[in-house]
Write a structure and sequence with these properties.
Rossmann fold, eight-stranded mixed β-sheet, 10 helices
Length: 299
């Protein structure tokens, strides 16, 4: 077992999208203040006294209902923050999307399925308030990296797990398309055979138990088991040299989606690790993501 401080150093690599996606080129320039409206720390729910917050990046001059993108940060389910998506949120707004960067409750204080419930609640809340943001509730995509990739995969495949909130019960938590960046997808495989010790410790802190102690919980937390013909289109990007989340996790998800007849694209990023730092991969990812959202969300 690794001490929490050592796991935290591993998480410094997993909280990639705040800076790694900035380097990736998805936010090559920030929008001018006059082009977008930014709302910080909007409350999308309160659970046991804890406020759940999101930031909104909205095209200022846009007319009519706009497509939306939900942004879910990584960080091993234990770190990260919605602020890491500020540049990307602004860039998406400049391109005509309403972007929502969300926070969710973090491990080890909160274990799975808390994080799943939070991101599903966020999507339902966004739909319930679509009119306030000139948002088309039927054109919402999601993008997440690492732990965020794991969570957005659920948004593309799994119906609402906890629908006890009567105010949101009639709103779906499914999105119309998903960009999954190097997210883990299958926790049913023997952890010791596919993961390094740091990754195993991260999972133990996330689930609150080891895989041997709670195999059913690990199965429930595996997006790959929810693949069906109803799944949203997926774009999956993963570095071939990723030592934290094996690229086989993305390959297996892609294979399952294709077997189910779902539109899916899987692009290995050559010689990149957990996050894309090679300029050629940054440019490729930027183009692929921009085209994917345009094809699936814009009229």
């Amino acid at each position: 077992m690794y001490p929490f401080s050592q796991v935290s150093r591993v998480l410094a690599r997993t909280i990639g999208l705040g800076w790694a996606l900035m380097a990736l080129g998805l936010a090559p320039c920030l929008a001018r203040a006059s082009e977008i409206r930014v709302q910080k720390n909007v409350v999308y729910g309160t659970v046991n006294g804890t406020k759940l917050l999101l930031d909104v990046y909205q095209p200022e001059a846009a007319r009519g209902r706009r497509p939306g993108v939900v942004l879910v940060h990584g960080g091993g389910w234990m770190g990260g923050d919605k602020s890491y998506y500020e540049g990307i949120g602004q860039e998406l707004a400049r391109k005509g999307y309403v972007a929502f960067a969300i926070n969710y409750r973090l491990a080890p204080l909160y274990h799975y399925p808390t994080q799943l419930d939070d991101v599903q609640r966020a999507v339902r809340w966004i739909r319930a308030h679509a009119g306030e943001y000139n948002l088309d509730p039927n054109r919402i995509g999601a993008l997440g990296d690492s732990a965020g990739g794991h969570l957005v995969a659920f948004l593309g495949m799994r119906d609402t797990r906890d629908n006890a909130d009567s105010e949101l019960a009639r709103y779906s938590s499914r999105v119309q398309c998903v960009v999954d960046l190097y997210g883990p997808t299958d926790f049913t495989l023997p952890a010791s055979s596919v993961l390094n010790p740091q990754a195993i410790q991260i999972l133990t802190l996330f689930f609150g138990k080891t895989q041997d102690q709670a195999p059913a919980l690990y199965r429930d937390g595996s997006p790959i088991l929810y693949v069906s013909g109803r799944a949203a289109p997926f774009l999956i990007l993963h570095g071939t040299a990723d030592t934290l989340v094996p690229i086989d996790q993305s390959q297996r998800l892609y294979n399952a989606l294709r077997r189910a007849g779902v539109e899916a694209t899987f692009v290995p990023m050559e010689k990149d690790g957990h996050g894309f730092l090679r300029p050629q991969n940054q440019q490729k990812a930027h183009a692929l993501i921009e085209d994917f959202f345009a094809r699936h969300l814009k009229p």
